[in-house]
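Case study 2.
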Amino acid sequence: MKFKTQTSVLKEVVSSVSRVVNPRPSTPALTGLYLHASDGFLEVIGSDLDITIKSKITVDVDVEGKCLVNSNKLSEIVRKLPTKSLDFTLRKLEDQDYPEAFLKKHEKDDQTQEVLVSELFDSLKNVGIASTPEGGRPVLTGVYFNNQDEKTELAATDSYRLATQQISNFPINDVGIISFKSLSEVIRLFENEEETLNINSNEKDLYFFNEKYFASLRKVEGTFPEYQNLFPKETLFTAEIDKKEILESLDRSTVVAEGYIPVTFIFENNEKLTITTLNKDVGGGNESLNIKILGVETGDINGFQMSFNPNYLIQGIEVLEGNKVYIRFSGNEKPVVVQGESENYKYLLMPVRAS
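Prediction:
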């Protein structure tokens, strides 16, 4: 196999595809990138079984052929290519051990639909913050696509928090649960491409593709938890807070909270909220914010308090639209609902015990 192409093009493709390759897979062949040069094109394939990425670029093919080479070594060599000419040799891996399913060609067909990149990707990033990191319970590591009439609600939870967001006109009805780690790679791969993206699915996989890249994501087996009834049916009162001010205050609190010590909200009255943190080994602090209490006959909330994981709270507030944050309280030790100026995104957060 021998081909010619621009160094910048090869760097981009090898870097994009190699990101999904597991450096310590169960099968040695899965450490490799599969290269196939023919008919004026170079195809590059990489996978970790949960996600497979393919890229097809135009090259000048001198000698057609295919090979499987170590992904990490190839990506490092390509990344460090100089402007001058050089020869570099890599030992090939046994390509007959590479799964045939990865090599299967996928073409646009009658079942292929188009999806708006911006709305879908923004919503996935907003919801995905609540998913469990890889290695946890599989159904909680993903985003659930819950189809309701003509709308699709995205949902993710790690049991301590829950995020949901509605998107419109999503064309696939049988997505189920997809790993957020895999979805993050898709976002990274396509977010700077066209406004629309081709999408398709079958019983086991979800596909995203355009002329340059193809991504196959394995669906997570299992049943997503029943989450709709977790949102409180009644709201005791709602605190309206300036988004920038509360984020800055929480950020300062994390200096002493060190990521695991909770912050406590203490409502001094209907116009003032005190955020307090205490770390016995470091110190602590108190900071007051101006707030506005909303609700019908909320009465006096003087002394009402609740504690939260500060990082979880920051992550939920950061993705909100608008300049205001609305935190809906339903009572002591009950979860709160955090929303912005758009009502289609909801972030449910469990309180924690103050240390």
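Helices lie at 7-18, 71-79, 100-103, 117-128, 180-190, 243-257, 310-318.
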